[in-house]
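FAQ

Q: What does a record look like?
A: Structure on top, sequence underneath. For example:
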């Protein structure tokens, strides 16, 4: 019985430590901005696109600055994790908006946001592919690549899921749904 209690305590401590290490992908200022537009789908999507773009820009800046070479692979890893988390947040928001009945003006703004999201996803895809390509051709990035290889794949998967969802939600509603 004592052994089981010790194992349970150990599992609990490990899970607490794992949760403590998780970072919030958004800064406090970004989270505040999102709270301000909580009921405005277009503004919310627009902000999330902006925050996602900022993570990719930070990666580009890191890669361009030779002074930041120390620990760059880990920093890119963290920024890609943030990118994926924000992409997942966008997907969650899209699912929530699709489940709601939006008034005509809000629905129009939401679809405008979807169009912007689809365009942004295409830009994001090019930037992730450029990073993947650099890992194959640039000697410095090739050295750092093991630090972020798997999270880059996760980011690409999150982006694909996001783009697929946005395109699906842009499709016209079936006649049965319109009648209800």
């Amino acid at each position: 019985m004592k052994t089981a209690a010790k194992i349970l305590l150990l599992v609990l401590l490990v899970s607490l430590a794992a949760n403590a290490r998780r970072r919030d992908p958004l800064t406090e200022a970004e989270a505040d901005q999102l709270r301000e537009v909580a009921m405005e789908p277009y503004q919310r999507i627009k902000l999330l696109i902006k925050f996602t773009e900022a993570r990719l820009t930070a990666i580009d800046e890191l890669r361009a600055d030779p002074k930041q070479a120390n620990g760059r692979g880990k920093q890119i890893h963290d920024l890609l994790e943030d990118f994926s988390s924000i992409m997942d947040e966008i997907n969650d928001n899209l699912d929530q908006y699709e489940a709601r009945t939006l008034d005509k003006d809000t629905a129009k703004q939401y679809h405008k946001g979807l169009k912007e999201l689809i365009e942004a996803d295409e830009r994001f895809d090019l930037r992730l592919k450029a990073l993947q390509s650099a890992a194959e051709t640039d000697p410095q990035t090739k050295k750092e690549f093991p630090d972020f290889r798997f999270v880059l794949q996760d980011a690409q998967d999150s982006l694909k899921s996001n783009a697929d969802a946005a395109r699906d939600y842009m499709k016209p509603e079936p006649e049965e749904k319109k009648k209800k």
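Q: Is there anything notable about this one?
A: The chain is about 85% helix and 0% strand.
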